[in-house]
Each structure stands twice: as C-alpha cells, then as structure tokens.
Amino acid sequence: MLGRQMISGDSIVALSSGRLPAGVAVIRISGPKSRFVIEMIAGTMVKNRVAAYRKFKAPDGSVLDRGVVVFFAGPNSFTGEDIAEFHVHGGRAVVARMLETIAGFDGVRHAEPGEFTRRAFLNGKVDLIETEALADLVNAETEAQRRFAVQNAEGVQSELYLSWRRRLIHARAMIEAEIDFAEEDDVPGSVAETVWADVRAMIGEIERHVGGFRAAEIIRDGFEVVILGAPNAGKSSLFNALARREAAIVTEEPGTTRDLLEVVLNLEGMRVRVTDTAGLRATPGRIEAIGIERARSKAGTADLLLVLEDMVDPVPIGAIPADIPALKIGTKVDLLQDRSSAPAARYDAAISTKDGTGLAKLLAEIGHRAAAQIGQAGDILPSRLRHVELLNETKRFLRAAVTEDERGQELRAEELRLAADRLGRIVGAVDVEDMLDVIFAQFCIGK
Ligand code: GDP
C-alpha cells in the first residue's frame, strides 16, 4: 500500500493556516525545492525539525518579514517529501509577498486544493479514509465531529476494513487450497465449512456496521429536529428562543411562516438542526399549501419532531408521521390560570417562551435524544456514503459467495476476491485513481 506512485517533481507552496489577517500565518512548501527556498529566504539552511528565528529576505535583498522557519526532511513529513514551513506575521500583504516570492522560484508553484494531502496519500503517509477524516477534522465544528474525525484519522475505521479484508484473503486461500487438495481426494470438507461460516458471520458484521451510518450522518450533518404545530401554537417563538436570536418572524397572523427556517445549534457538543415549519392547518391558501407540503416532507425525514400545541387554545393539526419520535409540547404555560392544573399528563413538556419555563429542560431532552442516536464515543461507523456503497457491494459478493449452487467452490472463491477488492477500495489499498479527484476536491488550498 505504501509508495503508491511518485508525483511530478514540482514543489508546491500555499498558505496553510486560516483566514487573514491573523497573528501568525503558516506558509508551507512541499517538494525537492524546500531546502533551496529556505536557503534563499532565510539565508542559510536550518536544522531538521528545529525551529529557527530568522530574517526573511527576497532575492533582491529586501526584507520580507522576520519569523520562524522549520524544515521537515522527507520521508518523515506530512507529505513524505521535504517540507519547509515559514511562520510569518499574518498580514495580507506579508503573506501575499511571501507567496509571490516563493512561487517565483523555478520549480515552485502554487498548490491546488488538497494537493498536500494528495501527496501524503500518494506517498503512503495516509490512506483514503484517513484522508477523508483529515478533511472532516479540518471542517469539524462540534466536539462530536472532532472526536469522530480524530478517531478515523488515527486509522481505526481503516483497520476494521483491512481486518475484514485480511479475513477474506485468508478465507479464499483456504478454499483454493482445499480445491487443490480435493483433486488429490484426501481432505475432508470441514475446512470449507468453517470458512463459509466465517464469511456468513462477516456479512452480519458488515450489516451492523452499515446500520451505524445514520449515526455518522447525524454527527456530520446534524440531528434533525422539526417543529410542527397549528398556526399560533408558538412555533416561531420557540424557534427563536432555541436560536437565542430573532431568526423567524414572530407574528399573530396565522400562516405567515410559509417557508422552512433552519437554525444550527451546538448542543452538548453535537450539531442539532432545528427547522421551523409552516403552520399546519386545514384550509390554507396556495402559497401556504406549498409551505405545508414542505413541512410534511421535512417532518418525514426528521430525527425528532417537536409537536407544539397551545395549552390554552388547543387546535388539532391532523396526522403527523407516525414512525418518527415526537415530543408533544404544551406551549404558553404562562397563560394558564392555575399552573398546577396544567394538563401535564397530555404533554411531554410544558413550555413558555414568555417567561422561559421548560426551555432548558427541553434543550436538555433534545441533547439527550441526539446523544442516544449517535451511540457511544468510540463506536466505529462508516463515515461516508462512499464507504456504505462499497460495503454494500462487498456484502453482495459475500452473499453470492456463500450461496451454494452448481457453480462450485472455485467461482465462489472468486466472489471472495471481488469482495476483498471492494474493501480495499474503501481504504485505498487497491487502485482508486478514479476516486481521487472527488476526494481531494473536499479540501481547501494549503491542506
Ligand atoms: P406560530 O404561528 O406557531 O409560529 O406561533 P408564534 O410563535 O408566531 O406565536 C403566536 C402567538 O403566540 C404570538 O402572539 C406569540 O407572541 C404568542 N406566544 C408564543 N409563545 C408564547 C408563550 O410562551 N406565552 C405567551 N403568553 N404567548 C406566546
């Protein structure tokens, strides 16, 4: 798997740190020209992996900046090539001048998006899943996303697929050995039986693993909460309270929340997306009807529904998707004359956006439900649809392999090879040239 192929002799340069202006900006160069660039800009070469404080100069002798330069000799670097890093003041003009100067040297050019990581992959420093996990790590906004990405960047997910792949390669070897021995007519069929039993067990393991994809999606894209309720039930008010900002129009006119409004919350380290929907009512106008249709279809794919009902003036809203977990929420509890008589039993929660009653508890409950959906920290989950598709193909080949028919062991062993090949494609251990552009396009320049 290591040393996939060497890339062009070009050295590449890019700003690898974040948005400017910033206190410090990191400019990274990868490739054979890294040493030369350090000698040119910092005056003389620096020691491997030792930070040096230098004056940086352009070839014409003008001072560019003063900063820290670090050299990482290949192959022990992120890309596997020689790398130079210049830590400069993060001003736009400073960085622009540095980049322009460095890219001006022969054999050095600006990097394409994801090109550093692509080189790391091609030099066998990271596999495909680790590459994807690095993209996720760079993009992680919540603690759950960060934990998941770090775990996969460390190779946990890759190791699961590689261990399945090793089992299949072993299984195939056993079957093929048995085919050879069978010709000599002196080996009992029990080896094959054990092998096929193991393959059957693996089908179950893959199915369970693929079943975790929704949890991974929730970690990545967010736990979907949809607010439903009759007009005036208090949806927009709750939405705003949850968002802690005035994101929706709060109005007493029924049916004005025509479109879907979404806010993303970071609840206990999890991404939670809350959507406010159009008022669900029996005789809507045309535009409203479109909104209601959207509300219903959005509700159909939610992870949790908040079904709101005005406790003082309950209006029925008709059918809601039955298979989606729902919390029935009584609103405007502040308006009840005698709060103790609140028909608490009819609701999972009673809230008031006027005085804040029940909101903290509701947020905690949503967080609790989201946490239950993403499973335990450390669970190994398929993190991309790409993985799920290849795992499903793997499973199809394995199913075909364990199906006993007139094909005989030889053709069934071939199905094992195809299945192992699909697992290899997920990790990038077998030819994946066609997928690379898609995967590296997820990166920004400098990564
Ligand atoms: P929507 O049509 O379901 O989005 O409902 P809104 O959030 O627009 O609220 C409808 C009306 O009820 C507005 O006049 C709000 O001020 C009022 N309202 C919403 N929540 C509460 C609450 O908790 N207490 C009281 N007293 N009024 C509320």
What does this protein look like?
There is one protein chain. The chain is an alpha/beta fold and 447 residues long. It has three domains: 11-126, 2-Layer Sandwich (Gyrase A, domain 2); 138-212 and 381-427, tRNA modification GTPase MnmE domain 2 (Four Helix Bundle (Hemerythrin (Met), subunit A)), CATH 1.20.120; 222-374, 3-Layer(aba) Sandwich (Rossmann fold). Helices cover 44% and strands 17% of the residues. The protein is built from 14 helices and twelve strands. The strands form two sheets. Strands 3-4-5-2-1-6 form a six-stranded mixed beta sheet. The chain has a six-stranded mixed beta sheet with strand order 8-9-7-10-11-12, sandwiched between helices. α7 (190-210) packs antiparallel against α12 (385-402). The longest helix is centred in the middle third of the chain and has 29 residues, at 156-184. The chain is flat. The structure holds guanosine-5'-diphosphate.
Please name the defining characteristics of this protein.
447 residues; alpha/beta; Gyrase A, domain 2; Four Helix Bundle (Hemerythrin (Met), subunit A); Rossmann fold; 6-stranded mixed beta sheet; 12 strands; 44% helix; 17% strand; binds guanosine-5'-diphosphate
